[in-house]
Amino acid sequence: MNLLLIAAGGFLGAIARFLLSSWMNNKSKTGFPIGTLTVNLAGSFLLGLMTGYGLSEGLYSLFGIGFMGAFTTFSTFKLENIQLREKENHRVLITYLFISYTGGILSAFAGIMIGMS
Description:
The chain is mostly helical. It has helices at residues 2-27, 34-53, 57-71, 74-86, 90-116. The radius of gyration is 15 Å and the shape is globular. The two termini are 30 Å apart.
């Protein structure tokens, strides 16, 4: 049953990521990968919130593992970093790395704290 929940969550999470990331990137013409940053920061917060709240195993499989696993994207994040480096867009690269890592940790921590309260 957990595998079906993870698969269903993954299906929905991948679609949500594509729609939100594409919409954000189409709105921005700066070359900054705002779509991936947005989904990764939102995903960090939401996964922290779910962890802090203490979801049941089934709900965590559906939303925590399935949805969030497909919604957030480490591979696209890494690819965008490589592309920014190849374009020698170091300012955007450093900013993107800093916001992604620092913001992700802080977002997850904030989600846990809110979920636990």
